[in-house]
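Side project, low priority. Logging it here so it doesn't get lost.
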Amino acid sequence: MSDEVGSVPQFRSDVTVELVRSAAADSDVIWAARVSTAGEQSLEALQQDPEKSKGLINFLMRDRHGTPFEHNSMTFFISAPIFVFREFHRHRSGWSYNEESGRYRELQPVFYVPGEERKLVQQGRPGRYEFVDGTPEQTKVVSEAMEASYRASYQAYQEMLDAGVAREVARAVLPVGLFSSMYATCNARSLMHFLSLRTKDERATVPSFPQREIEMVAEQMEAEWAKLMPLTHAAFNTHGRVAP
């Protein structure tokens, strides 16, 4: 999230993802897979015979030999509503997190309000439901109700801080629609598992039903990863978007 924005609430319908550090390439997968037979020669092999290396990555993905996909690292800086992070933190294996703390800094009044394209109405029963567009009236109700609630909660937060109440106590009044920020570090295997659950894609052999807001984060992370490891990303799509 940006630096101090003052006490006037701001409302956002987007999320942001920035790749801040990476040590991730398709050659890392080849190196790890061939270490028992070729060792350091694997990088040279990738450069000399890319089709063979592409075939090896596809073989590993198809037959779910997962560990070669763990020898890499990506660190993302993510700004999103708190409720997105509560879902995000369910992903534990292969992930490291550091989120901004409301105990040690005054939290800024940046809040999430769905954009007009966000589907608002749930139809059907659990396991077989779908989301459809809301009416203009429903969109208006959502925006007005959220903004009014956010303004009131942040005013209460400020009143407690002004009265000398500790930040860690005052923050309890703030809603999960408040924007937070975190660093998230993962490897390609853990990211693929995240993407298999947090994106909806027609190529997936196992259906997923992500909440749209965390899918918005996942889509941006996937775009960055695809640039770093194009062969691995292509194999992930070819073999049903299932983590090996």
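Brief comment: The chain has one domain: 10-24+72-238.
Revisit when time allows.
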